[in-house]
Amino acid sequence: MGAQHSDAERFDALLKSLLSPLEVELCSNQIIRLRNHYKLLLRWNSRINLTSVRELDEIVERHFGESLFLAQLLPHEGTVVDIGSGAGFPGFPVSVARPSLLVTLVESVHKKAAFLQELARNEARVKVHAGRFHSVDWKFDWAIWRGVALIEIEDDIALCVDRVAAITSERQAAQWKRRKKLVWEREQAVPWDKRRVVLVGRSIHVPRET
Description:
Strand content: 25-35%
CATH superfamily: Vaccinia Virus protein VP39
Structural class: alpha/beta
CATH class: Alpha Beta
């Protein structure tokens, strides 16, 4: 119990330190929800491979920090789909930072979707879709993702999403900008890792076949 308590305290301190220069303020309830996400991730990760990132400081930076950094670039209201949510990133921290958003976490791997169902069990504004993104048949204001190949989802994005935001590497961002189905309007470097960026843009809609 002592080690778990220490980890929770370190999580809180690392997260607050990371966000402080960004002027991101989270209330105590938001911190608790993110900490519970972290604790649930640790428990499940011992049984299924949710993430290869194991060190606490890297988990805070790569998973929670990047997700919250993306959240600051989103509006306060609307609908968001997190494609290939995996362990809940970036969608769940986005839902914590932007509590008026309605966030849908999409995950096709059964065990990961089960984790997301547990994560979202008491979250009124977080839904989980266990399946591939192309099986989602409703529209969203925003799509967000990371770690998903753009070529696999861009056609479906064009059908059901207006705006997009994604976390990726600087190198991958340069390749994405050469593709034609999304228009990237903004690139924001992650402050603590300049090799990582958030791209923000819009989709070029393709009408559904009738």
